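Not sure how to ask, but would you mind making up any protein sequence you like and the tokens describing how it folds?
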Amino acid sequence: MTVKKNRKKMDHHGSTFDSFLEEEGIREEVEAVAIKRVLAWQLEQAVRKRQETKPVMAKQLHTSRSNWIACSTLVTYHAGGPAPSESA
């Protein structure tokens, strides 16, 4: 016995999410946060995949260990992660 559900087709006409954000005046801010979150996630994934130490990653990125840590900490923080600490 087959049961069919009465499904209505969704009408997706109307404004886009981008236009909604634009109307609210927050599009640039939302996009900036989204980019930072993606960057933080990609950085975290690269570190996990390579299983390398911070000094090795810094060398491959042509920067110092302290600069690499500062950048990764700030990107993570601005993406909604924990606040930077003095020890980072």
User: Anything to note?
Assistant: The chain has a mean pLDDT of 76. Residues 5 and 11 are 18 Å apart (CA to CA). Residues 17-23+30-78 form one domain. Residues 27-50 form the longest helix (24 residues).
